[in-house]
Amino acid sequence: MKRRVTIKDVANEAGVSTAAVSLVLHARFDEDGNPDCRIGKETAAKILEAIDRLHYIPSGAAAQISNGRSGNIGVITADISSNFFSDICRHIENMAFDAGYNTLFASTDEKPERLEKVIYSMIRLGVDGLIIVPPSTDASALEALEDRDIPVVFLERDIPDYQGASRLLLDNAEACRLAVNELYDEGYRRIEHLSFDMDISTIKEKESGYFHEMEKLGLSSLAKTRKVSQNVTMAELMEVISQAKTEGTEAFFIPTNRLTIQTITALAKLGLNVPDDIAIVGFDRHKFFDVYTPYISHIYQDTKELAGRSFDMLVDMIENKAPGRLEMLKPQLIKGGSSIKKSL
Amino acid sequence: MKRRVTIKDVANEAGVSTAAVSLVLHARFDEDGNPDCRIGKETAAKILEAIDRLHYIPSGAAAQISNGRSGNIGVITADISSNFFSDICRHIENMAFDAGYNTLFASTDEKPERLEKVIYSMIRLGVDGLIIVPPSTDASALEALEDRDIPVVFLERDIPDYQGASRLLLDNAEACRLAVNELYDEGYRRIEHLSFDMDISTIKEKESGYFHEMEKLGLSSLAKTRKVSQNVTMAELMEVISQAKTEGTEAFFIPTNRLTIQTITALAKLGLNVPDDIAIVGFDRHKFFDVYTPYISHIYQDTKELAGRSFDMLVDMIENKAPGRLEMLKPQLIKGGSSIKKSL
DNA sequence: TTGAAAGCGCTACCAG
DNA sequence: CTGGTAGCGCTTTCAA
């Protein structure tokens, strides 16, 4: 069995103390090879050589235990295999890498009870901070984080009861305004809201935003929401849609990306045309939109911006002990053929 | 500043030694509440209570440092935001979770030089084993793993020069046979191979497999491969395709998922029809296929099986010191409308 | 400019 | 059945 190469081995090899090695390990060097710490240039060079020769890689665990910082940040989303979230994860991974952090990912599967377990794992592993897309508005799973003063950024969705976190949220009222008005302006009236039945801040905001807009347009009497379970089967969704079609629905505002895709699929299977049979404004972009005809009109939030700003907020909290703050992201409407004027 | 709750605090709170706490922490309990270690039922209960009261979470770092095992496995893929890989990651995450392992993810972006950095990070963090989708056939980035005898499983692609790893690979010769023959049987003759220009074992195997099949069918004179950079732009791809169309290409066998999607997109933008203008057999499934018409014929490898078998192989190596072994996965042809008989 | 040594939280061995 | 204690690899103070 091979033994781990430790800092001691390096110290021996270079004929110095472990302290010197540690110092050099964390030093930055100027162009002459001088470290920015109290170690001579020659000594430092000897040490670097020894590190190289022995293929030494310091143990993060040992470092973590002795100085309290892990250099890890955790990212908890609903599902890392979903398009929208894995995109965000990827951007965070890149930024974190450049900033010298490691990124740990985990998925909740939208199950509140998994959040607690995942947080437990992350704390066990050691994280300096966490970016979380909460699967519900329930704050109880975060107790362990509060206990430990671990900085948290809520991304895209909020847990209003949890104190001290930062938040990066989409202006959902504005998103609803854009979506509903787009359909209205193109001549649709029986505009319905189709969404998942979930206890998530954004889902709720979008629903009330929708009703609010319909009211402003004087369409309260036509306003209607249809909700499906997040595990909805294709057959069930098709049933819901044909039911709607029978009742005269003209357009759907679908405020989640996954359901947008599923609905398009269901419409295709039902042989219904977009937008002639049902017009659509969806939410978030999907690679898939590029190939589908007509192009799906959607509310767009830039994943790169989402990732970048949430990461910056987190690092600010970790490194500068910045207090939690709230930031809003402005949604954009991307127009496509799925919401163009009804041909009568 | 709040202080970490440690095993000592728990020991004090319960009035026992840290050793007792550690034992209880790792014990399993039968239905009577008896731990499977030499600790009395009452003592154990007291300890569990203390753990609960103090919201104690053990430090993985400290555990790792004292017993050498991290309980982590690493999964390195090309890009965690790609459909195919994130699917695999998700399945591994679930299995690992159930088996008591944590999963660490990282992406190489198909850049060989990033593999080395990512492996460095993983070793730093501590991993008991690694599942790797290599970005090239170059073994040099894995030196650090060899040094440390860290078990490795290559998934889907191989690095033939690296000794001692396990491998779970697709039978690419069979995949090519299925794909080319499907097109041949449907009446296509000018079947071309469209792929990325990359130094990856599977890409090369698929290319030679394609030529081999064309030869067996007596179509050597028509066999042709077109290669594009993995960063190909839509404009470039469209150019390649219209060029091919001009030259009389009837069908493409596209042995990577991403390029399959990109090609479909390009065809749509060029106003070319599938399969009448160009027939297609792609590789790997994409959610997107469900909505696209015609359904894209493709070679299918089950991500869940890929994930499950590679994870099992890895755990076997970690826990039973099993030697590296090679396993093959049989591809399947899923028939869709994208390869049906040419209408003359 | 450098080294010695005291912990960090935990496990595992050994003595009771 | 239980507790004391010596490390694990690293960082960081304190002395030299």
Can you characterise this structure?
The structure is a homodimer of 344-residue chains. The first copy, chain A, is of the alpha/beta class. Chain A has twelve helices and twelve strands. In chain A, strands 2-1-3-4-5-11 form a six-stranded parallel sheet, sandwiched between helices. In chain A, strands 7-6-8-9-10-12 form a six-stranded mixed sheet, with helices on both faces. In chain A, helix 9 (201-216) links the parallel strand 6 (191-196) and strand 7. Chain A is elongated and about 85 Å long. The mean pLDDT of chain A is 93. Chains A and B meet through helix 4, helix 5, strand 2, helix 6 and helix 7 of A and helix 4, helix 5, strand 2, helix 6 and helix 7 of B. The structure holds a DNA duplex (16 and 16 nucleotides).
Report the C-alpha radius of gyration of chain A, rounded.
26 Å
Find the biggest chain interface: A-B, 54 and 54 residues
So how many helices of chain A?
A: 12
pLDDT < 50 runs, ≥5 residues of chain A: none
Task: Give the gist of this structure.
Two copies of one chain form a homodimer. By secondary structure, chain A is of the alpha/beta class. Chain A has twelve helices and twelve strands.
List keywords for this structure.
DNA-binding, 6-stranded mixed sheet, 6-stranded parallel sheet, homodimer, 12 helices, alpha/beta, 344 residues
Describe the protein's topology.
Two copies of one chain form a homodimer.
Chain A (H helix, E strand, L loop, with lengths): L6 H8 L3 H9 L14 H14 L5 H8 L4 E6 L5 H16 L3 E6 L4 H14 L3 E4 L10 H5 L4 E4 L10 E5 L1 H14 L5 E6 L4 H16 L8 E4 L5 H14 L3 E3 L3 H14 L8 E5 L13 E4 L2 H18 L5 E4 L2 E3 L10
Helix pairs in contact in A: 1-2, 1-3, 5-12, 8-9, 10-11
Chain A binds a DNA duplex (16 and 16 nucleotides) through helix 2 and helix 4.
